[in-house]
Amino acid sequence: MFENVINFIQETYQTKDFIPLHEPRFVGNEKRYLNECLDSTFVSSVGKFVDEFGPAAFINRARKEGARDFGACMSPHTAFLILQGLETLSLRMERHVSNTREVVNFLSEHDAVKSVSYPELDNHPDHKLAQKILPKGCGAVFTFEIKGGVESGKKFIESLNIFSHLANVGDAKSLVIHPASTTHFRMDKASLKKAGITEDTVRLSVGIEDINDLKEDLDEALKQANR
After folding, report:
1. Residue 1 has what pLDDT?
2. For residues 222 and 84, which has the higher predicted lDDT (pLDDT)?
């Protein structure tokens, strides 16, 4: 009964090259890898429509304002930036993934790291699934657990020089964040656990810089965090 169903995929952490499904309609995230420097934005906020339409606020704004008034189209300059980024997408993704694999292996063997969560690792619960649907690589965003809790996590972030402390992902440059002290700082330990986060969790978005520079930066910051 589903033979004529069209598949649409909205994927933040991957690109079409890395999801070899049978001809899906792929919808990437233009702020991530498609545009290499996170300098394009195509966002629609709901605003006052929530008060008037409740749960149907978003679709009503899309119909009554987006489609009717301005066509919900990105600006010409945004389109230019995305098209420009697409020219080097394949090359950049190869570098993103190769760098990530080396960083994952490096952190997995580091004395200051409790654990690493990345689907290509044998101990990841989705390892077999990742091999099936992501044979070319599992992207460049992953988490690891640092020893020492919140204070070590904060000191680790502050000691990095190459990794930028940002909540974004998918940039050409490497990014890092410690959720328990930033994006999720209002949550207690129990709430963090329910969200799959601990006080030790650090998220990395690995960029395309020189891999030796990245590993040296991580190593020095980990040493500082555990002093």
Report:
1. 47
2. 222
DSSP three-state, residue 11: strand
Closest C-alpha among 96, 123, 133, 153 to residue 9: 133
Report residue 147 as tokens.
């020893």
- From the number of C-beta atoms within 10 Å of its C-beta (0-12, 13-18, 19+), residue 108 rates as middle
* Residue of 206, 216, 226, 222 whose CA lies nearest to 104: 206
Give the contacts of 164 (CB within 8 A, at least 6 positions apart). 171, 173, 174, 175, 176
Residue 150 has φ and ψ, to the nearest 5°, of: -60, -50
Give the DSSP H/E element, type plus range, for residue 202. strand 201-205
Radius of gyration for the chain, computed over Cα atoms and rounded to the nearest angstrom: 20
| 42 has a pLDDT exceeding 50 | no
Model confidence at 12, pLDDT cuts 50, 70, 90, reads low
Q: Which residue has the higher pLDDT, 38 or 223?
A: 223
pLDDT for 176 equals 97
* Nearest Cα residue to 93 out of 36, 143, 144, 142: 36
Query: Could you tell me the CA-to-CA distances from 23 to 37, 71, 83, 137 in Å, in that order?
Result: 28, 27, 21, 19
Provide the terminal-to-terminal Cα distance of the chain, rounded to the nearest Å.
Answer: 61
What is the residue type of 48? K
In the predicted model, what is the mean pLDDT of residues 159-186? 92
3-state helix, strand, coil in the chain (%, to 5): 45, 15, 45
Report the predicted TM-score, pTM, of the whole model to 2 decimal places: 0.75
For the record, the structure tokens of 5 come out as 């169903």
